[in-house]
Amino acid sequence: MAERKRRLVANELTEAALQLLALKGFDAVTIDEIATTAGVSKRTFFRYFASKEDVVVQFLADMGADMRAELAARPAGERPAEALRHAVAVPIATCADHSDRALRVVQLILRTPALHARFLERQAQWRDDLAAELAHRLGLDPDSGLYPRLAAGMALNAFDAVLDRWSGSDGGEDPNELIEHAFAVIAPALDTA
Amino acid sequence: MAERKRRLVANELTEAALQLLALKGFDAVTIDEIATTAGVSKRTFFRYFASKEDVVVQFLADMGADMRAELAARPAGERPAEALRHAVAVPIATCADHSDRALRVVQLILRTPALHARFLERQAQWRDDLAAELAHRLGLDPDSGLYPRLAAGMALNAFDAVLDRWSGSDGGEDPNELIEHAFAVIAPALDTA
DNA sequence: CCCTTCATGTCACTCGGTGACATCTTGACA
DNA sequence: TGTCAAGATGTCACCGAGTGACATGAAGGG
Hints:
Two copies of one chain form a homodimer. Chain A is mainly α. The first copy, chain A, has ten helices and no strands. The first copy, chain A, folds into two domains: 2-52, Homeodomain-like (Arc Repressor Mutant, subunit A); 57-190, Orthogonal Bundle (Tetracycline Repressor, domain 2), CATH 1.10.357. In chain A, 77% of the residues lie in helices and 0% in strands. The mean pLDDT of chain A is 95. Chains A, B: GO terms for molecular function: DNA-binding transcription factor activity; transcription cis-regulatory region binding. Chains A, B: Residues 7-67 form the HTH tetR-type domain.
């Protein structure tokens, strides 16, 4: 129940942060401001988040784990393009569900260089995870060929492109159509291994 | 000739920075240290570089322009996979030439999260440039289909994978072989448009 | 009722990064 | 040669991110 309080404070902080950052822009909001709004001190903020960027990027952190889990759950015989498409579709669907909030966060990230950089770095981790899972799935040695890594990279590249178009159109374009379109392009490379 | 002096100071600064950063690690070196080593003040450092990361990433900055230029220079009828492979090969060849220095810089970037993040962000810019060039090359509307962006992303993705392997093997693996291997994987998607 | 533990606040500090201002160089021009 | 304008630099003061040390205070367990 101490644990419950921790999660409560964390929520309060992300809430305050997203609100303020979306409203005034990344650089115009200080951590003191965020912390005070959430009712804690600046020091406490840093006990929950490692950096100012983290409070935003963390908001999307589970996506990586979700994707890997979905990939691991796909049937063994399924073609890589199909399996990866389903894996990438999971976080996209999550976005589409909470489109109000998710859209604002994604736009904030893509438009703020500091956040975008951190986001890409995190994605590099996802890519390695996906590559490992894919290699395991196909019975390949992850360190010999480049295929697993390239395939995972292509999937995430598609993910980024979709996210970009989706946020650029203010949620107007249909994410599912975009994903299918993107995977139609990359599938020939994914499925010829 | 004032311009020549500026370039001289800039060189002095990057020199000092790369030396110290590679030696002691990114976080263990202050900007005061770098500036003093180069014989200028901290303030002057920031008149040449926007941030601590910049002095390292800038070192690879021309790569983006080089790639785009090479892509623009490839014969019009050439298949995308071939043209992009040559474009990506340019910075790789540059690395292989100055392998002593380039290797240390690349390793520093890939191992330092803050630098890696900035590097990826810069690459996103390269990707958009490449995508624009590719769209122009193929007579496509850059904003309608996802192909140009995905193709550029795949090429850079291959670039990253090669860089990663090359630096991970301390320059042991042959970059040219790695590039061919990587493009053999992604070519089916690049050339089916 | 005490004691331990854990979260928090406060304080002081380092360092990245910026704006303002004074100084110094340098080259142009009379 | 003397002067003036422009640009580069140093100094100083400042803000904000991030960290370490320490004291406090609340919850739970004996």
